[in-house]
Amino acid sequence: MKTDSDPTRRSWRIAKAPGGLPLVGHALQLARRPLEFLSSLPGAGDLVELRLGTKATYLPCHPELVQQVLRSARVYDTGGPVKEKARPILGNGLITSDWADHRRQRRMVQPAFHTARIATYAVVMQEECAAQAETWRAGRPLDVADAMQALTARVTARALFSTEMAPHSVAEIQRSLPVMVRGAFRRAMDPTGLVARLPLAANREFAAALARLHRLIDAIVGDYRHSGEDRGDLLSALLAARDEEDGGAMTDQEVHDQVMTLLLAGVETTASALTWAWHLLATHPEAEARLHAEVDEVLGGRVPEYADVPRLVHTQRIFTETLRLYPPAWMYTRTTTEPTELAGHRLPTGADLLISPYVIHRIPEFFPRPEVFDPDRWLPERAGEVARGSYLPFGAGSRKCIGDVFGMTEATLALAAIASRWRLRPVPGTTVAPRAEMSLTAGRLPMVPEPR
Ligand code: HEM
Protein backbone atom coordinates (compact mmCIF):
# COMPACT_ATOMS: atom_id res chain seq x y z
CA MET A 1 0.00 0.00 0.00
CA LYS A 2 1.14 3.53 -0.61
CA THR A 3 2.03 5.35 2.60
CA ASP A 4 0.60 8.72 3.55
CA SER A 5 2.65 11.84 3.32
CA ASP A 6 2.76 13.80 6.59
CA PRO A 7 -0.81 15.13 6.93
CA THR A 8 0.27 18.09 9.09
CA ARG A 9 2.45 19.43 6.26
CA ARG A 10 -0.14 18.96 3.56
CA SER A 11 -1.82 22.01 2.11
CA TRP A 12 -5.39 21.01 1.53
CA ARG A 13 -7.54 22.41 -1.23
CA ILE A 14 -10.80 23.75 0.23
CA ALA A 15 -13.52 24.59 -2.30
CA LYS A 16 -17.17 25.43 -2.69
CA ALA A 17 -19.23 23.27 -5.04
CA PRO A 18 -20.20 25.17 -8.16
CA GLY A 19 -23.75 25.80 -9.33
CA GLY A 20 -25.79 26.22 -6.12
CA LEU A 21 -29.22 27.90 -6.38
CA PRO A 22 -30.76 30.38 -3.92
CA LEU A 23 -32.71 28.63 -1.11
CA VAL A 24 -32.22 25.05 -2.34
CA GLY A 25 -28.45 25.24 -2.80
CA HIS A 26 -27.26 21.95 -4.34
CA ALA A 27 -30.20 19.87 -3.08
CA LEU A 28 -31.69 19.41 -6.56
CA GLN A 29 -28.39 18.27 -8.09
CA LEU A 30 -27.92 15.83 -5.23
CA ALA A 31 -31.48 14.50 -5.52
CA ARG A 32 -31.54 14.22 -9.33
CA ARG A 33 -28.07 13.06 -10.30
CA PRO A 34 -26.28 12.21 -7.03
CA LEU A 35 -23.51 10.03 -8.48
CA GLU A 36 -22.59 12.39 -11.32
CA PHE A 37 -22.82 15.45 -9.10
CA LEU A 38 -20.75 14.07 -6.20
CA SER A 39 -18.16 12.49 -8.52
CA SER A 40 -17.55 15.87 -10.15
CA LEU A 41 -16.48 17.44 -6.84
CA PRO A 42 -13.03 15.93 -6.11
CA GLY A 43 -11.78 17.95 -9.10
CA ALA A 44 -12.71 21.11 -7.18
CA GLY A 45 -10.95 20.32 -3.88
CA ASP A 46 -9.99 17.90 -1.09
CA LEU A 47 -12.80 19.22 1.11
CA VAL A 48 -15.78 20.58 -0.79
CA GLU A 49 -18.58 22.62 0.76
CA LEU A 50 -22.03 22.28 -0.71
CA ARG A 51 -25.35 23.68 0.46
CA LEU A 52 -28.38 21.54 1.10
CA GLY A 53 -31.13 24.12 1.41
CA THR A 54 -29.34 26.86 3.30
CA LYS A 55 -27.20 24.48 5.37
CA ALA A 56 -23.48 24.03 4.65
CA THR A 57 -22.58 20.36 4.18
CA TYR A 58 -19.09 18.99 3.52
CA LEU A 59 -17.81 16.26 1.24
CA PRO A 60 -14.27 15.07 2.09
CA CYS A 61 -12.72 14.01 -1.23
CA HIS A 62 -9.43 12.65 0.09
CA PRO A 63 -9.03 9.30 1.93
CA GLU A 64 -6.99 10.89 4.72
CA LEU A 65 -9.82 13.29 5.48
CA VAL A 66 -12.44 10.55 5.27
CA GLN A 67 -10.39 8.40 7.67
CA GLN A 68 -10.01 11.32 10.05
CA VAL A 69 -13.80 11.75 10.14
CA LEU A 70 -14.64 8.05 10.48
CA ARG A 71 -12.00 7.43 13.14
CA SER A 72 -13.11 10.34 15.35
CA ALA A 73 -16.54 8.91 16.09
CA ARG A 74 -17.18 11.11 19.13
CA VAL A 75 -16.64 14.37 17.27
CA TYR A 76 -18.14 13.16 14.00
CA ASP A 77 -21.15 11.22 15.26
CA THR A 78 -23.84 9.66 13.11
CA GLY A 79 -26.59 12.20 13.06
CA GLY A 80 -28.59 14.70 11.12
CA PRO A 81 -32.00 14.41 9.55
CA VAL A 82 -31.45 10.96 8.01
CA LYS A 83 -30.81 9.41 11.42
CA GLU A 84 -33.83 11.15 12.95
CA LYS A 85 -36.00 9.60 10.23
CA ALA A 86 -34.46 6.16 10.70
CA ARG A 87 -35.18 6.07 14.45
CA PRO A 88 -38.94 5.44 14.23
CA ILE A 89 -38.18 2.52 11.90
CA LEU A 90 -35.07 0.97 13.44
CA GLY A 91 -35.46 2.10 17.05
CA ASN A 92 -32.15 2.53 18.88
CA GLY A 93 -29.75 -0.05 17.40
CA LEU A 94 -26.18 0.05 16.09
CA ILE A 95 -26.98 2.32 13.15
CA THR A 96 -29.11 4.88 14.99
CA SER A 97 -27.41 5.03 18.41
CA ASP A 98 -25.32 7.99 19.54
CA TRP A 99 -21.60 7.64 20.16
CA ALA A 100 -21.73 6.84 23.92
CA ASP A 101 -24.49 4.26 23.63
CA HIS A 102 -22.99 2.83 20.44
CA ARG A 103 -19.84 1.75 22.25
CA ARG A 104 -21.84 -0.35 24.71
CA GLN A 105 -24.05 -1.77 21.96
CA ARG A 106 -21.11 -2.67 19.75
CA ARG A 107 -19.41 -4.52 22.63
CA MET A 108 -22.61 -6.53 23.12
CA VAL A 109 -23.29 -7.35 19.45
CA GLN A 110 -19.71 -8.06 18.36
CA PRO A 111 -19.55 -11.65 19.76
CA ALA A 112 -22.47 -12.61 17.45
CA PHE A 113 -20.06 -11.96 14.54
CA HIS A 114 -17.11 -13.86 15.99
CA THR A 115 -15.32 -16.14 13.47
CA ALA A 116 -16.63 -19.28 15.18
CA ARG A 117 -20.19 -18.00 14.72
CA ILE A 118 -19.58 -17.07 11.07
CA ALA A 119 -18.57 -20.69 10.45
CA THR A 120 -22.02 -21.75 11.73
CA TYR A 121 -23.87 -19.17 9.61
CA ALA A 122 -21.82 -20.38 6.63
CA VAL A 123 -23.70 -23.69 6.76
CA VAL A 124 -26.93 -21.77 6.11
CA MET A 125 -25.19 -19.77 3.38
CA GLN A 126 -23.95 -22.96 1.74
CA GLU A 127 -27.44 -24.53 1.76
CA GLU A 128 -29.20 -21.45 0.48
CA CYS A 129 -26.66 -20.73 -2.28
CA ALA A 130 -26.92 -24.32 -3.52
CA ALA A 131 -30.74 -24.18 -3.33
CA GLN A 132 -30.79 -20.93 -5.33
CA ALA A 133 -28.62 -22.47 -8.06
CA GLU A 134 -31.03 -25.43 -8.10
CA THR A 135 -34.16 -23.35 -8.88
CA TRP A 136 -32.88 -21.88 -12.16
CA ARG A 137 -33.87 -23.36 -15.51
CA ALA A 138 -31.62 -23.33 -18.58
CA GLY A 139 -32.61 -20.60 -21.03
CA ARG A 140 -35.39 -19.19 -18.83
CA PRO A 141 -34.67 -15.48 -18.07
CA LEU A 142 -34.70 -14.42 -14.45
CA ASP A 143 -34.35 -11.10 -12.66
CA VAL A 144 -30.94 -11.47 -11.04
CA ALA A 145 -31.59 -8.55 -8.66
CA ASP A 146 -34.69 -10.30 -7.39
CA ALA A 147 -32.91 -13.66 -7.07
CA MET A 148 -30.00 -12.14 -5.11
CA GLN A 149 -32.40 -10.25 -2.81
CA ALA A 150 -34.30 -13.50 -2.13
CA LEU A 151 -31.02 -15.30 -1.46
CA THR A 152 -29.61 -12.77 0.99
CA ALA A 153 -32.98 -12.32 2.74
CA ARG A 154 -33.17 -16.09 3.29
CA VAL A 155 -29.54 -16.32 4.43
CA THR A 156 -29.83 -13.42 6.90
CA ALA A 157 -33.20 -14.56 8.25
CA ARG A 158 -31.99 -18.14 8.76
CA ALA A 159 -28.70 -16.99 10.29
CA LEU A 160 -30.75 -14.91 12.71
CA PHE A 161 -33.41 -17.49 13.58
CA SER A 162 -32.73 -21.17 13.14
CA THR A 163 -35.86 -22.58 14.84
CA GLU A 164 -38.95 -24.24 13.50
CA MET A 165 -40.36 -20.70 13.17
CA ALA A 166 -37.84 -20.21 10.36
CA PRO A 167 -39.95 -21.07 7.28
CA HIS A 168 -42.73 -18.65 8.24
CA SER A 169 -40.35 -15.90 9.35
CA VAL A 170 -38.17 -16.23 6.25
CA ALA A 171 -41.21 -15.85 3.99
CA GLU A 172 -42.46 -12.84 5.96
CA ILE A 173 -39.06 -11.16 5.83
CA GLN A 174 -38.78 -11.78 2.09
CA ARG A 175 -42.21 -10.19 1.64
CA SER A 176 -41.98 -7.23 4.01
CA LEU A 177 -38.31 -6.22 4.00
CA PRO A 178 -38.14 -4.75 0.47
CA VAL A 179 -41.28 -2.67 1.16
CA MET A 180 -39.75 -1.45 4.40
CA VAL A 181 -36.41 -0.58 2.73
CA ARG A 182 -38.13 1.37 -0.10
CA GLY A 183 -40.27 3.29 2.41
CA ALA A 184 -37.29 4.06 4.64
CA PHE A 185 -35.40 5.44 1.64
CA ARG A 186 -38.35 7.63 0.52
CA ARG A 187 -38.51 9.08 4.03
CA ALA A 188 -34.76 9.66 4.21
CA MET A 189 -34.80 11.55 0.92
CA ASP A 190 -37.75 13.82 1.73
CA PRO A 191 -36.45 16.97 3.45
CA THR A 192 -40.00 18.23 4.17
CA GLY A 193 -41.23 15.07 5.96
CA LEU A 194 -44.56 15.59 4.15
CA VAL A 195 -44.50 12.57 1.85
CA ALA A 196 -44.73 10.16 4.81
CA ARG A 197 -47.95 11.87 5.96
CA LEU A 198 -49.84 11.74 2.66
CA PRO A 199 -52.59 9.11 2.32
CA LEU A 200 -50.73 7.19 -0.39
CA ALA A 201 -50.97 3.45 -1.08
CA ALA A 202 -47.16 3.24 -0.73
CA ASN A 203 -47.37 4.71 2.78
CA ARG A 204 -50.08 2.25 3.82
CA GLU A 205 -48.04 -0.67 2.45
CA PHE A 206 -44.96 0.61 4.29
CA ALA A 207 -46.83 0.92 7.60
CA ALA A 208 -48.32 -2.56 7.20
CA ALA A 209 -44.95 -4.16 6.30
CA LEU A 210 -43.24 -2.43 9.23
CA ALA A 211 -45.98 -3.56 11.64
CA ARG A 212 -45.71 -7.16 10.38
CA LEU A 213 -41.92 -7.16 10.85
CA HIS A 214 -42.22 -5.70 14.36
CA ARG A 215 -44.82 -8.33 15.32
CA LEU A 216 -42.72 -11.14 13.88
CA ILE A 217 -39.56 -10.06 15.68
CA ASP A 218 -41.44 -9.59 18.97
CA ALA A 219 -42.85 -13.10 18.70
CA ILE A 220 -39.48 -14.66 17.91
CA VAL A 221 -37.61 -12.77 20.64
CA GLY A 222 -40.33 -13.81 23.12
CA ASP A 223 -40.05 -17.44 22.05
CA TYR A 224 -36.25 -17.49 22.34
CA ARG A 225 -36.31 -15.75 25.71
CA HIS A 226 -38.84 -18.29 26.95
CA SER A 227 -36.81 -21.31 25.78
CA GLY A 228 -33.46 -19.97 27.03
CA GLU A 229 -31.57 -22.32 24.65
CA ASP A 230 -28.49 -21.34 22.63
CA ARG A 231 -29.49 -22.37 19.13
CA GLY A 232 -26.15 -21.30 17.66
CA ASP A 233 -27.77 -18.51 15.65
CA LEU A 234 -27.40 -14.74 15.70
CA LEU A 235 -30.43 -14.14 17.88
CA SER A 236 -29.20 -16.59 20.53
CA ALA A 237 -25.88 -14.74 20.56
CA LEU A 238 -27.63 -11.38 21.02
CA LEU A 239 -29.73 -12.72 23.89
CA ALA A 240 -26.70 -14.31 25.57
CA ALA A 241 -24.54 -11.19 25.30
CA ARG A 242 -23.42 -9.62 28.59
CA ASP A 243 -21.75 -6.25 28.88
CA GLU A 244 -18.17 -6.80 30.00
CA GLU A 245 -18.31 -3.56 32.04
CA ASP A 246 -21.56 -3.95 34.00
CA GLY A 247 -22.54 -7.58 33.24
CA GLY A 248 -25.99 -6.48 32.02
CA ALA A 249 -27.90 -8.12 29.17
CA MET A 250 -29.83 -6.36 26.40
CA THR A 251 -33.55 -5.80 27.01
CA ASP A 252 -36.05 -7.40 24.62
CA GLN A 253 -36.56 -4.00 22.98
CA GLU A 254 -32.81 -3.58 22.46
CA VAL A 255 -32.53 -7.03 20.92
CA HIS A 256 -35.55 -6.26 18.74
CA ASP A 257 -33.91 -3.04 17.47
CA GLN A 258 -30.65 -4.86 16.68
CA VAL A 259 -32.54 -7.50 14.70
CA MET A 260 -34.34 -4.82 12.63
CA THR A 261 -30.99 -3.08 12.11
CA LEU A 262 -29.26 -6.27 10.95
CA LEU A 263 -32.06 -6.99 8.49
CA LEU A 264 -32.00 -3.49 7.06
CA ALA A 265 -28.20 -3.32 6.89
CA GLY A 266 -27.38 -6.85 5.79
CA VAL A 267 -29.82 -7.96 3.12
CA GLU A 268 -30.00 -5.35 0.41
CA THR A 269 -26.33 -4.33 0.58
CA THR A 270 -25.03 -7.84 -0.16
CA ALA A 271 -27.77 -8.48 -2.75
CA SER A 272 -26.99 -5.27 -4.68
CA ALA A 273 -23.28 -6.05 -4.80
CA LEU A 274 -23.89 -9.64 -5.93
CA THR A 275 -26.18 -8.37 -8.69
CA TRP A 276 -23.45 -6.02 -9.89
CA ALA A 277 -20.93 -8.86 -9.77
CA TRP A 278 -23.05 -10.94 -12.21
CA HIS A 279 -23.37 -7.97 -14.53
CA LEU A 280 -19.62 -7.30 -14.45
CA LEU A 281 -18.79 -10.97 -15.03
CA ALA A 282 -21.11 -11.15 -18.03
CA THR A 283 -19.40 -8.12 -19.55
CA HIS A 284 -15.82 -9.23 -18.70
CA PRO A 285 -15.34 -12.69 -20.20
CA GLU A 286 -11.74 -13.03 -19.04
CA ALA A 287 -12.61 -12.51 -15.36
CA GLU A 288 -15.54 -14.88 -15.83
CA ALA A 289 -13.37 -17.59 -17.42
CA ARG A 290 -10.92 -17.36 -14.52
CA LEU A 291 -13.77 -17.62 -12.04
CA HIS A 292 -14.97 -20.79 -13.77
CA ALA A 293 -11.45 -22.23 -13.78
CA GLU A 294 -11.03 -21.48 -10.07
CA VAL A 295 -14.35 -22.95 -8.93
CA ASP A 296 -13.76 -26.06 -11.05
CA GLU A 297 -10.32 -26.53 -9.57
CA VAL A 298 -11.20 -25.80 -5.93
CA LEU A 299 -14.60 -27.48 -5.83
CA GLY A 300 -14.41 -30.15 -8.52
CA GLY A 301 -18.23 -30.09 -8.79
CA ARG A 302 -18.89 -29.99 -5.00
CA VAL A 303 -21.08 -27.39 -3.30
CA PRO A 304 -18.71 -24.78 -1.79
CA GLU A 305 -18.37 -24.65 1.97
CA TYR A 306 -16.77 -22.36 4.53
CA ALA A 307 -13.40 -24.16 4.41
CA ASP A 308 -13.18 -23.41 0.66
CA VAL A 309 -13.42 -19.63 1.08
CA PRO A 310 -9.66 -18.97 1.64
CA ARG A 311 -8.85 -20.86 -1.59
CA LEU A 312 -11.42 -18.98 -3.69
CA VAL A 313 -9.02 -16.07 -4.09
CA HIS A 314 -10.03 -14.89 -7.56
CA THR A 315 -13.71 -15.16 -6.56
CA GLN A 316 -12.97 -12.91 -3.57
CA ARG A 317 -11.05 -10.43 -5.72
CA ILE A 318 -14.03 -10.22 -8.09
CA PHE A 319 -16.29 -9.28 -5.20
CA THR A 320 -13.74 -6.86 -3.72
CA GLU A 321 -13.47 -5.07 -7.07
CA THR A 322 -17.26 -5.06 -7.47
CA LEU A 323 -17.56 -3.32 -4.10
CA ARG A 324 -15.05 -0.73 -5.30
CA LEU A 325 -16.95 0.12 -8.46
CA TYR A 326 -20.45 -0.19 -6.99
CA PRO A 327 -20.25 0.19 -3.19
CA PRO A 328 -23.78 -0.55 -1.94
CA ALA A 329 -23.41 2.01 0.89
CA TRP A 330 -22.60 4.70 -1.68
CA MET A 331 -23.05 7.53 0.82
CA TYR A 332 -23.47 7.89 4.57
CA THR A 333 -23.42 10.87 6.88
CA ARG A 334 -21.83 12.27 10.02
CA THR A 335 -22.59 15.39 12.09
CA THR A 336 -20.11 17.27 14.28
CA THR A 337 -20.88 17.25 18.01
CA GLU A 338 -18.49 20.13 18.79
CA PRO A 339 -16.55 22.79 16.86
CA THR A 340 -13.60 21.15 15.12
CA GLU A 341 -11.14 21.53 12.27
CA LEU A 342 -10.90 19.44 9.14
CA ALA A 343 -8.28 20.07 6.46
CA GLY A 344 -7.45 23.27 8.34
CA HIS A 345 -11.04 24.47 7.92
CA ARG A 346 -13.21 25.36 10.96
CA LEU A 347 -16.42 23.35 11.24
CA PRO A 348 -19.12 24.45 13.70
CA THR A 349 -21.13 22.09 15.95
CA GLY A 350 -23.89 20.44 13.91
CA ALA A 351 -22.06 20.57 10.56
CA ASP A 352 -23.14 17.70 8.30
CA LEU A 353 -20.59 15.62 6.34
CA LEU A 354 -21.24 13.28 3.46
CA ILE A 355 -18.97 10.26 3.19
CA SER A 356 -19.08 8.67 -0.23
CA PRO A 357 -17.05 5.51 -0.97
CA TYR A 358 -18.38 5.77 -4.54
CA VAL A 359 -16.62 9.12 -4.96
CA ILE A 360 -13.33 8.08 -3.31
CA HIS A 361 -13.19 4.74 -5.18
CA ARG A 362 -13.27 6.53 -8.53
CA ILE A 363 -10.48 9.08 -8.01
CA PRO A 364 -7.59 8.18 -10.38
CA GLU A 365 -4.95 9.35 -7.91
CA PHE A 366 -5.97 6.53 -5.53
CA PHE A 367 -7.19 3.91 -8.00
CA PRO A 368 -5.39 4.02 -11.37
CA ARG A 369 -7.85 3.68 -14.29
CA PRO A 370 -10.74 3.77 -11.83
CA GLU A 371 -13.50 3.02 -14.36
CA VAL A 372 -11.91 -0.31 -15.32
CA PHE A 373 -13.15 -3.52 -13.66
CA ASP A 374 -9.83 -5.09 -12.77
CA PRO A 375 -10.03 -7.78 -10.03
CA ASP A 376 -6.24 -8.19 -10.34
CA ARG A 377 -5.65 -4.79 -8.78
CA TRP A 378 -6.18 -6.73 -5.53
CA LEU A 379 -3.36 -9.22 -6.20
CA PRO A 380 -0.88 -9.02 -3.30
CA GLU A 381 1.90 -7.91 -5.65
CA ARG A 382 -0.20 -5.01 -6.94
CA ALA A 383 -1.65 -3.91 -3.61
CA GLY A 384 0.91 -1.07 -3.55
CA GLU A 385 -1.06 0.72 -6.25
CA VAL A 386 -3.93 1.35 -3.88
CA ALA A 387 -3.53 4.27 -1.48
CA ARG A 388 -3.94 3.42 2.20
CA GLY A 389 -7.41 4.07 3.63
CA SER A 390 -8.97 4.67 0.23
CA TYR A 391 -10.99 1.44 0.00
CA LEU A 392 -14.11 2.06 2.06
CA PRO A 393 -17.04 -0.18 1.09
CA PHE A 394 -17.49 -1.20 4.74
CA GLY A 395 -16.60 2.17 6.26
CA ALA A 396 -13.86 2.53 8.91
CA GLY A 397 -13.34 3.20 12.60
CA SER A 398 -15.60 2.13 15.44
CA ARG A 399 -18.71 2.09 13.25
CA LYS A 400 -17.18 -0.03 10.52
CA CYS A 401 -19.61 -2.63 9.18
CA ILE A 402 -20.06 -5.36 11.76
CA GLY A 403 -21.21 -7.73 9.00
CA ASP A 404 -18.18 -7.32 6.68
CA VAL A 405 -16.89 -10.89 7.11
CA PHE A 406 -20.44 -12.26 7.05
CA GLY A 407 -21.12 -10.38 3.78
CA MET A 408 -17.80 -11.35 2.15
CA THR A 409 -18.26 -15.01 3.11
CA GLU A 410 -21.84 -15.06 1.85
CA ALA A 411 -20.92 -13.40 -1.44
CA THR A 412 -17.92 -15.67 -2.06
CA LEU A 413 -20.02 -18.78 -1.45
CA ALA A 414 -22.85 -17.44 -3.63
CA LEU A 415 -20.56 -16.58 -6.56
CA ALA A 416 -18.80 -19.94 -6.35
CA ALA A 417 -21.97 -22.04 -5.90
CA ILE A 418 -23.76 -20.42 -8.83
CA ALA A 419 -20.72 -20.10 -11.14
CA SER A 420 -19.90 -23.76 -10.71
CA ARG A 421 -23.24 -24.59 -12.35
CA TRP A 422 -24.33 -21.57 -14.39
CA ARG A 423 -23.10 -18.85 -16.70
CA LEU A 424 -25.38 -15.81 -16.72
CA ARG A 425 -25.93 -14.07 -20.07
CA PRO A 426 -27.39 -10.57 -20.45
CA VAL A 427 -30.79 -10.26 -22.13
CA PRO A 428 -30.08 -8.28 -25.34
CA GLY A 429 -31.31 -4.70 -25.22
CA THR A 430 -31.08 -4.39 -21.42
CA THR A 431 -29.41 -1.16 -20.35
CA VAL A 432 -27.80 -1.13 -16.93
CA ALA A 433 -27.10 2.04 -14.99
CA PRO A 434 -26.44 2.51 -11.27
CA ARG A 435 -29.30 3.85 -9.19
CA ALA A 436 -28.41 5.57 -5.96
CA GLU A 437 -31.21 4.34 -3.72
CA MET A 438 -30.90 2.97 -0.17
CA SER A 439 -28.16 0.85 -1.78
CA LEU A 440 -26.43 1.45 -5.09
CA THR A 441 -28.58 -0.88 -7.18
CA ALA A 442 -28.62 -1.99 -10.80
CA GLY A 443 -32.44 -1.97 -10.82
CA ARG A 444 -34.07 -4.96 -12.49
CA LEU A 445 -31.43 -7.11 -14.19
CA PRO A 446 -32.88 -9.77 -16.50
CA MET A 447 -30.31 -12.45 -17.42
CA VAL A 448 -30.47 -15.90 -18.95
CA PRO A 449 -28.84 -18.84 -17.12
CA GLU A 450 -26.89 -21.25 -19.35
CA PRO A 451 -25.68 -24.51 -17.86
CA ARG A 452 -21.89 -24.82 -17.80
C1 HEM B 1 -21.44 -6.26 0.95
C2 HEM B 1 -22.20 -6.10 1.98
C3 HEM B 1 -22.17 -4.93 2.93
C4 HEM B 1 -21.74 -3.64 2.76
C5 HEM B 1 -21.14 -3.03 1.51
C6 HEM B 1 -21.94 -2.96 4.01
C7 HEM B 1 -21.56 -1.64 4.25
C8 HEM B 1 -21.63 -1.02 5.49
C9 HEM B 1 -21.09 0.28 5.79
C10 HEM B 1 -20.38 1.21 4.83
C11 HEM B 1 -21.33 0.52 7.11
C12 HEM B 1 -20.88 1.75 7.90
C13 HEM B 1 -21.86 2.88 7.78
C14 HEM B 1 -21.42 4.09 8.57
O1 HEM B 1 -20.25 4.22 8.91
O2 HEM B 1 -22.28 4.96 8.82
C15 HEM B 1 -22.05 -0.61 7.63
C16 HEM B 1 -22.50 -0.73 8.91
C17 HEM B 1 -23.23 -1.79 9.37
N1 HEM B 1 -23.48 -2.96 8.70
FE1 HEM B 1 -22.88 -3.45 6.84
N2 HEM B 1 -22.50 -3.82 4.90
C18 HEM B 1 -22.66 -5.04 4.28
C19 HEM B 1 -23.15 -6.20 4.83
C20 HEM B 1 -23.66 -6.30 6.10
C21 HEM B 1 -24.19 -7.51 6.67
C22 HEM B 1 -24.26 -8.85 5.96
C23 HEM B 1 -24.65 -7.18 7.92
C24 HEM B 1 -25.31 -8.03 8.96
C25 HEM B 1 -25.61 -9.29 8.84
C26 HEM B 1 -24.37 -5.76 8.12
C27 HEM B 1 -24.67 -5.05 9.25
C28 HEM B 1 -24.23 -3.77 9.52
C29 HEM B 1 -24.48 -3.08 10.77
C30 HEM B 1 -25.28 -3.60 11.96
C31 HEM B 1 -23.86 -1.83 10.67
C32 HEM B 1 -23.77 -0.75 11.74
C33 HEM B 1 -22.48 -1.01 12.51
C34 HEM B 1 -22.21 -0.03 13.62
O3 HEM B 1 -22.56 1.15 13.52
O4 HEM B 1 -21.61 -0.46 14.62
N3 HEM B 1 -23.76 -5.27 7.00
N4 HEM B 1 -22.21 -1.55 6.63
UniProtKB/TrEMBL annotation:
<comment type="similarity">
    <text>Belongs to the cytochrome P450 family.</text>
</comment>
<dbReference type="GO" id="GO:0004497">
    <property type="term" value="F:monooxygenase activity"/>
</dbReference>
<keyword id="KW-0479">Metal-binding</keyword>
<dbReference type="InterPro" id="IPR002401">
    <property type="entry name" value="Cyt_P450_E_grp-I"/>
</dbReference>
<dbReference type="GO" id="GO:0005506">
    <property type="term" value="F:iron ion binding"/>
</dbReference>
<keyword id="KW-0408">Iron</keyword>
<feature type="binding site" description="axial binding residue">
    <location>
        <position position="401"/>
    </location>
    <ligand>
        <name>heme</name>
    </ligand>
</feature>
<keyword id="KW-0349">Heme</keyword>
<dbReference type="GO" id="GO:0020037">
    <property type="term" value="F:heme binding"/>
</dbReference>
<dbReference type="Pfam" id="PF00067">
    <property type="entry name" value="p450"/>
</dbReference>
<dbReference type="InterPro" id="IPR050196">
    <property type="entry name" value="Cytochrome_P450_Monoox"/>
</dbReference>
<dbReference type="InterPro" id="IPR036396">
    <property type="entry name" value="Cyt_P450_sf"/>
</dbReference>
<keyword id="KW-0560">Oxidoreductase</keyword>
<dbReference type="GO" id="GO:0016705">
    <property type="term" value="F:oxidoreductase activity, acting on paired donors, with incorporation or reduction of molecular oxygen"/>
</dbReference>
<dbReference type="InterPro" id="IPR001128">
    <property type="entry name" value="Cyt_P450"/>
</dbReference>
<protein>
    <submittedName>
        <fullName>Cytochrome P450</fullName>
    </submittedName>
</protein>
<dbReference type="InterPro" id="IPR017972">
    <property type="entry name" value="Cyt_P450_CS"/>
</dbReference>
<keyword id="KW-0503">Monooxygenase</keyword>
